[in-house]
Design a protein that fits this description.
The protein is of the alpha/beta class and 231 residues long. It is built from nine helices and five strands, in the order αβαβααβααβααβα. Strands 2-3-1-4-5 form a five-stranded parallel β-sheet, with helices on both faces.
């Protein structure tokens, strides 16, 4: 009887461990950086490598990532929408973020899948908060209503000089969207905003020098994310 009880206890412990493993949430990892930092190229390649190795990861992007959010993206980035008010822009980003979060990000995390997102709230703090001179605290408040406290665990920040980033944009993009076409002064304010974001959230930031060759940047970002998943 004692041996049977021990076996039952072991079986119960094993089942509990399996249940806890199934219920463990995925990590929410974001990629941030000014235009021309290589975020999309780097984040998609990192996700591809991890998927090939069997890690449960999912790539997504902002603005967009879901059907409704992608429609909002088109409005935000349409070069014809030059009359868009700065606060309207900030609210549209928050609306797109909300839909993307509840439709794509949170369900994946609950299923134990790590989400790698090209942009999240930090972009709004830098672009609308500082770039549009609305104020970072004001933009943060708008977005807290949208995300209800759901922040990334870690952020891979690709740090690039604004001159290098703008030169890459003009060289590599056949069509420039509404934000791409902004002045150099705007993009310098965005870079300044990101530096403040890095200081505010230093505990979750992994800063990578993105002025270098893209393959070096990809490798560093891959090792950083893989280290987080293996921890």
């Amino acid at each position: 009887m004692h041996a049977l009880q021990v076996n039952l206890n072991n079986l119960f412990l094993l089942c509990s461990q399996c249940y806890n493993m199934r219920m463990e949430k995925g990590l929410f990892i974001t990629f941030e950086g000014p235009d021309g930092s290589g975020k999309t190229t780097v984040s998609t390649e990192v996700c591809r490598r991890l998927e090939a190795e069997g890690y449960p990861v999912r790539y997504t992007r902002e603005p967009g990532g879901s059907a409704i959010a992608e429609q909002i993206r088109k409005v935000i980035l349409d070069p014809e929408n030059t009359a868009m008010d700065a606060r309207c822009e900030a609210l549209l980003y928050a609306a797109s973020r909300r839909q993307h979060l509840v439709e794509k990000v949170l369900p994946a995390l609950e299923a134990g899948v790590t989400v790698i997102s090209d942009r999240f709230i930090d972009s709004s703090l830098a672009y609308q908060g500082m770039g549009r001179s609305i104020g970072m605290d004001e933009v943060y408040a708008i977005n807290q209503f949208a995300i209800e406290g759901h922040m990334p665990q870690k952020t891979i920040f690709l740090n690039v000089d604004p001159e290098i980033g703008l030169e890459r944009i003009r060289r590599n993009r056949a069509v420039l969207d509404r934000l791409d076409q902004e002045s150099e002064a705007f993009h310098k304010r965005v870079t300044q905003g990101y530096q403040e974001v890095i200081q505010r959230y230093a505990d979750r930031m992994i800063v990578i020098d993105a002025n270098r060759d893209v393959e070096e940047v990809i490798e560093d970002a891959y090792q950083a994310v893989k280290g987080l998943l293996d921890a």
